[in-house]
Design goal:
Glutaredoxin; 4 helices; 5 strands; Thioredoxin
Length: 106
């Protein structure tokens, strides 16, 4: 299951992390975010070589603002602490897994 992190954890969990990290910026009131959550969690269990974390933007606005997250769900993919890519909007399991696979072999 993907770990919930806060703005305070972001530096240690993502920006200082060596490797691939998928960060799901979401909110509890967001319908597409609720649909994306089980897909994101499933991939976090399937691909152990990738870090999967979630940031609730209602409670943690600083990093969402810093990274220009204006629509959610927004998944930002980090490589060695730097943004490599981003996905905005709901992704079905097959589509999302294709993206994850691309980074799991990177």
């Amino acid at each position: 299951m993907a770990k919930e992190i806060s703005d305070n954890d972001f530096l240690m969990e993502v920006e200082n992390f060596k490797g691939i990290a998928f960060v799901d910026f979401w909110a509890p009131w967001c319908g597409p975010c609720k649909m994306m959550a089980p897909v994101f969690d499933k991939m976090s269990q399937k691909y152990n070589s990738i870090k999967f974390v979630k940031v609730n933007t209602t409670e943690n606005m600083k990093k969402a603002s810093e990274y220009g997250v204006s629509s959610i769900p927004c998944i930002i993919i980090f490589k060695d602490g730097k943004e490599a890519d981003r996905i905005v909007g709901f992704q079905d399991e097959n589509s999302f897994e294709q993206i994850v696979k691309k980074y799991s072999s990177a």
